[in-house]
């Protein structure tokens, strides 16, 4: 029998703690600012939207945070997730590299998003919250939150980017199957939605507009909180179960990856896989390079500016310093569907500070939507020869000039692996 195609862990191997990269960074990211005063926010400023436990996780300097047993119980429905060896891709490329991907599509929602949706729903239920509002692009986050709310008896209301809402009716069906309510955004239900429609009656929507609508509703109801599926520190914290499992899976087969590749929009999928490996890199236990890959339709890391910006179109959310295309960014008509599906016009501050080795030009966020953009940021751990293109023989045109068909929207993160390594148990 040859080398295994999938590497599995037992339920007993499920990580019991989330990892906080902030504890190991040389310096913390710049502070989050209040949208009105422009001063650093405190816990009281976040209380109208988030429960105390999540606020504590957002600002904690502790390296590890224990995962509640109630959350672990739901995680066990699909975790630990498998690590696959891509034998056929290796053969097609003719490469000596060993390529692996961590498959998060086994979750009930079909993506990595429930890793944070479940604890967010749990902590909100613990705080006595009755309803959660949120935004969603392709529908993965909306589906995940609806699933999570169903596990803890919460109502869930979702604003989905209009372009995606129209193109993906089955995501709407999934959200409703889990008990959620979904609206196309912009909608007539909020001031933010009505303002967007007044400006453009045929608006395809954007994540920024959808966030504004969800935040507006949550802020106006004391029994309702808002939940975000990316960008914030506590979201990235929850996603680190991905990388912690991957470390154990590589150790199980005696391999050490030398390159980690993660798809990056708002940053949660990338952070979930990469941050535990960065811990090993920063501690000197592993020499690994990290590459963040983003969609060309929403190139926040490669063409955005490093500046303070709002997370929503209406300017209701706190200001965070990050790579951004501007809080009022709406993709070009030719790329709207792709951007609504795969992209976020801003990348989370923690991923920004962990991936980039040098500061980006500080310009106004609104100016970032024009011009050629800045150079691609270098990784924290540069790889001498990063694989950037497929061999010429493998770049075959699609039949009749049609775009390649996407087989799945669930995130998979490719990893090349060599040598051997055993993890050092965290203290």
Automatic annotation (TrEMBL):
User: Region Disordered: what ranges?
Assistant: 350-427
User: Which residue intervals define the domain Tryptophan synthase beta chain-like PALP in the entry?
Assistant: 77-305
Identify the metabolic or biological route this protein is part of. Answer: Amino-acid biosynthesis; L-tryptophan biosynthesis; L-tryptophan from chorismate: step 5/5
- On the tree of life, the source organism's domain of life is Bacteria
Q: Where is the composition biased (Polar residues)?
A: 415-427
| Keyword check for Nucleotide-binding | no
Picking any one GO molecular function of the record gives:
L-serine hydro-lyase (adding indole, L-tryptophan-forming) activity
Q: According to the UniProt record, what class of enzyme is this?
A: lyase
What Pfam families does the record tag this protein with? PALP (PF00291)
Q: Decide whether keyword Lyase is in the record.
A: yes
Gene Ontology CC, one term: cytoplasm
Cofactors, names only: pyridoxal 5'-phosphate
- Catalysed reactions, as listed in the record: (1S,2R)-1-C-(indol-3-yl)glycerol 3-phosphate + L-serine = D-glyceraldehyde 3-phosphate + L-tryptophan + H2O
- UniProt entry keywords in alphabetical sequence: Amino-acid biosynthesis, Aromatic amino acid biosynthesis, Lyase, Pyridoxal phosphate, Tryptophan biosynthesis
InterPro entries the UniProt entry points to: Trp_synth_b_CS, Trp_synth_beta/beta-like, TrpB-like_PALP, TrpB-like_PALP_sf
Locate the compositionally biased regions of type Low complexity: 364-375
The Enzyme Commission number assigned here is 4.2.1.20
> Quaternary arrangement and interactors, per the entry?
Tetramer of two alpha and two beta chains.
Q: Which family does it belong to?
A: Belongs to the TrpB family.
The protein, known as: tryptophan synthase
Look up and give the organism this protein is from. Actinopolymorpha singaporensis
């Amino acid at each position: 029998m040859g080398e295994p195609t999938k590497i599995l862990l037992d339920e007993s191997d499920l990580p019991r703690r989330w990892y906080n990269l902030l504890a190991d960074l040389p310096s913390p990211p710049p502070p989050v600012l209040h949208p009105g005063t422009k001063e650093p926010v405190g816990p009281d400023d976040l209380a109208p939207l988030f429960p105390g436990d999540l606020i504590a996780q957002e600002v904690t300097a502790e390296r590890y945070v224990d995962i509640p047993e109630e959350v672990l119980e739901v995680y066990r429905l699909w975790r630990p997730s498998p690590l696959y060896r891509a034998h056929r891709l290796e053969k097609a490329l003719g490469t000596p590299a060993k390529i692996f991907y961590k498959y998060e599509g086994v979750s009930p929602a079909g993506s990595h998003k429930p890793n944070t949706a479940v604890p967010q729903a749990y902590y909100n239920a613990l705080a006595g919250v009755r309803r959660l509002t949120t935004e969603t692009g392709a529908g993965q986050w909306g589906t995940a939150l609806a699933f999570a709310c169903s596990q803890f008896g919460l109502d869930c209301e979702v604003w989905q980017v209009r372009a995606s809402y129209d193109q993906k009716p089955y995501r709407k069906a999934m959200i409703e199957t889990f008990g959620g309510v979904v609206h196309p955004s912009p909608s007539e239900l909020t001031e933010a939605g009505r303002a967007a429609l007044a400006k453009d009656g045929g608006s395809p929507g954007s994540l920024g507009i959808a966030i504004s609508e969800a935040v507006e509703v949550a802020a106006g109801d004391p029994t309702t909180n808002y939940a975000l599926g990316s960008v914030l520190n506590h979201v990235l914290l929850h996603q680190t179960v991905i990388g912690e499992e991957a470390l154990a899976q590589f150790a199980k087969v005696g391999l050490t990856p030398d390159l980690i590749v993660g798809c990056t929009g708002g940053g949660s999928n990338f952070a979930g896989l990469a941050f535990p490996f960065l811990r090993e890199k920063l501690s000197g236990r592993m020499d690994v390079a990290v590459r963040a890959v983003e969609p060309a339709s929403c190139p926040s890391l490669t063409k955005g500016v490093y500046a303070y910006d709002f997370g929503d179109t209406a300017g209701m959310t706190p200001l965070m310093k990050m790579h951004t295309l501007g809080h009022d960014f709406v993709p070009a008509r030719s790329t709207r569907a792709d951007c609504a599906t795969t992209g976020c016009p801003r990348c989370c501050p923690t991923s920004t500070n962990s991936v980039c080795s040098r500061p980006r030009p500080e310009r106004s966020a609104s100016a970032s939507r024009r011009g050629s953009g800045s150079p691609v940021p270098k990784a924290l751990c540069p790889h001498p020869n990063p694989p950037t293109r497929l061999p010429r023989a493998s770049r075959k045109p699609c039949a009749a000039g049609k775009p390649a068909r996407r087989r799945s929207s669930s995130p998979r993160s490719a990893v090349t692996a060599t040598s051997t390594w055993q993890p050092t148990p965290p203290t």
